[in-house]
Amino acid sequence: MKKIIILFIVLVIPYFALCNERVGEIFINRIDVFDSTKSDWFFAAPLANKLHALTKEYIIEDELLFSEKDDLDFELLSETARNLRSTGLFTEVKIMLDSVNEYIYNVIIITWDRWSTYPAFLFGKGGGNTSIGGRLSELNFLGTGTQIHVETLNRSENNIGWQTAAALYQRRLFRTDFALNTYFMHNQYRDWQILSIDKPYRTISSELSYGAYGSNNIGKDFIYWKSDSTAIVPTHEKTVSAYFSRAWMKKDRVFATIYTELQDVDRGGKMYRRAFDNSGKILIAFSSVSQDFLITNKLNTYQTEDMTVGGWGSAIIGKTFSLGSKGENLYYVAGQGERSTMRENLYLFGRAMGSSGFDQNYGKYTYQEFYGLGFYRLNKELLIGGRVRQQSVWNWNAARQLILDNDAGLRGYSANRLTGDNRMVGNLEMRYFTDFPLWIFNFSGVLFWDIGSVWNQGTEIMKAKFHNSAGFGIRLHDTKATGPSGIYRFDFAFNFDKMKFAEIIFSTDQLFSVFAKHEFKLPAMYGTEFDNE
After folding, report:
1. Is residue 276 within 8 Å of residue 322, measured between CB atoms?
2. What is the pLDDT of residues 312-327, one digit of tens each?
3. Is 61 helix (H, G, I), strand (E, B) or coil?
4. Which of 340, 368, 398 marks a domain boundary?
5. 114-140 confidence digits (pLDDT tens)
6. Of 210, 308, 365, 468, which is most buried with the most CB atoms under 10 A?
7. How confident is the model at residue 9 (pLDDT cuts 50, 70, 90)?
């Protein structure tokens, strides 16, 4: 009897253990920008493909969440596809299974490269301002996933004139989990340098995230007054920060995060001092996120987008301390909660946040914000989408400036003319995706209505003046590009204050995405947003 039991353990149990569905071989098929099997193939496509550096195979391998002989996990396959799409290197990603037998499946990963080299003539117009210049962007340098941007631009806004900027971004520095981001900008009013390196949460099972950030911003700020005059104020702001975060669980994740920051700033005068200036900050956050993923298209663009449905919440406690007797010693509390839902063709998203500093029992720099999004899909080509954002402060005895113009979402109004402590803006768009491709381009049309107001702390919202515009727009979608560079936006806005059409607005990307993502966020001092230009 013992021999039979031993034989059963040795032979039968391992057999059943091997009956789990497993990954066999992994095959990676990299397809160049132009594919001869697709309708956009043309006579110069072979030359265009040769001018493009195909993404290196190791870039794809670094994103794989499974290996050969692993148990077959469909959630890991889906997450790998999402991560590959999030790199911005591909216009399309497919992961397929090929059965070897009843238990073994080979995994085939197919990626279609996006066009990555963009020498561009830049022209932007809106709110009475014009920008003209050039940019060279390489979004996949030598196929390594490295992004390089060099730009020169002549800006009429505030007579800024010529501006140069350069940026370098590596998603995985030397094939590690660390990301590197650098940015440099110069014009006659400002020099700005930024450097950050961090290890983000790359997967839904990553346990640790940490990083550091440094910024040096020296130049002049524009302060806009009601009399239509502009003050040009010298400023020099130096900031360094670091964070460490730990995560638990996989489906409904929880996080504990500590964030520290040191800031030294000279604003050129006490009247221009901003909240929490010249202060060190220590913030501790306890957060959680719930995520379900849906694959969509024809919401913002024709290409596949990953939409997150679920929620996020965070509670923050902290302390600020003065640096060089120029800052303030305050306790700080903040909270943020957001939730989204998708029911058939209706999507709704809402986020509420609030924060305040405390000096003994007295509240200081109290901030409240609401952000809402939604869309209703009438059919595959037509949808109605909208957003609203409202920001208010109390006991805010420091300089504050929110601008309401085309950049903030009120199309057809002059730039930098409507300013205040508080702001509310809403946008409603009807988007129609024609699905009428012309070579590598496709088109969509928009009807829109914008409404907004800015007001100061002493004014009741019911007494604030609201401004309206309405109009129509055209979107040109580049199917060989992803992100903002893949959409060219033309809007024609009617200004209801002046009762006439404003200038043509030209920009890139949609004015807003009709859905938001629930994802990890670092703790922050809410309400410190300050619009300069």
Report:
1. no
2. 999 999 999 999 878 8
3. helix
4. 398
5. 888 876 656 665 566 777 777 788 889
6. 365
7. very low
- Residue type for position 460: E
Predicted confidence at residue 185, as pLDDT, reads: 94
Sign of CA dihedral 187, 192, 197, 202: negative
* C-alpha distance from residue 284 to each of 151, 243, 318, 330, 388 (Å): 38, 10, 6, 15, 29
Q: Are residues 390 and 264 in the same domain?
A: yes
Residue 422 near residue 454 (C-beta atoms within 8 A): yes
Q: pLDDT tens-digit profile of 238-255?
A: 999 999 999 998 878 999
- Alpha carbon 49 to its chain's center: 29
Is 259 within a domain?
Answer: yes
Residue 166, H or E segment: strand 161-170
- Average pLDDT score over residue span 179-186: 96
Tokens matching residue 468: 């309206």
Show Cβ contacts of residue 250 under 8 Å, excluding neighbours closer than 6 positions. Answer: 204, 205
CA 238 to CA 218: how far, in whole Å?
8
As a whole number of angstroms, the distance between CA 452 and CA 464 comes to 10
What region does 69 belong to: left with phi over 0, alpha with psi -120 to 50, or beta? left
Please tell me the distance from the alpha carbon of residue 182 to that of residue 215, in angstroms, as a whole number.
10
Verify that 196 and 312 share a domain, yes or no.
yes
In this predicted structure, what is the pLDDT of residue 120? 62
* CA proximity to 114, closest of 98, 90, 146: 90
C-alpha 202/C-alpha 212 separation (Å) is 17
Residue 316 burial (C-beta neighbours within 10 Å; 0-12, 13-18, 19+): buried
Neighbours of 107 (CB within 10 A): 21
Question: For residues 187 and 158, is the Cβ–Cβ distance under 8 A?
Answer: no
Q: Based on the structure, what is the number of domains in the chain?
A: 2
Range of the domain at 43: 2-113
Indicate the pairing of strand 104-113 with strand 22-31: parallel
Structure confidence by residue, pLDDT tens digits, 183-230? 999 998 899 999 999 999 999 999 999 999 999 999 988 888 655 678
Q: What is the pLDDT of residue 377?
A: 97
Burial class (CB in 10 A: 0-12, 13-18, 19+), 19: exposed
Q: What does the alpha-carbon distance between residue 13 and residue 489 come to, in Å, rounded to a whole number?
A: 62
**Which phi and psi angles does 68 have, rounded to 5°?**
-60, 140
Helix (H) / strand (E) element for 408: namely none
Could you tell me if 278 and 194 lie in one domain? Answer: yes
Q: What are phi and psi of 468, to 5 degrees?
A: -130, 150
Which is higher by pLDDT, 439 or 293?
293
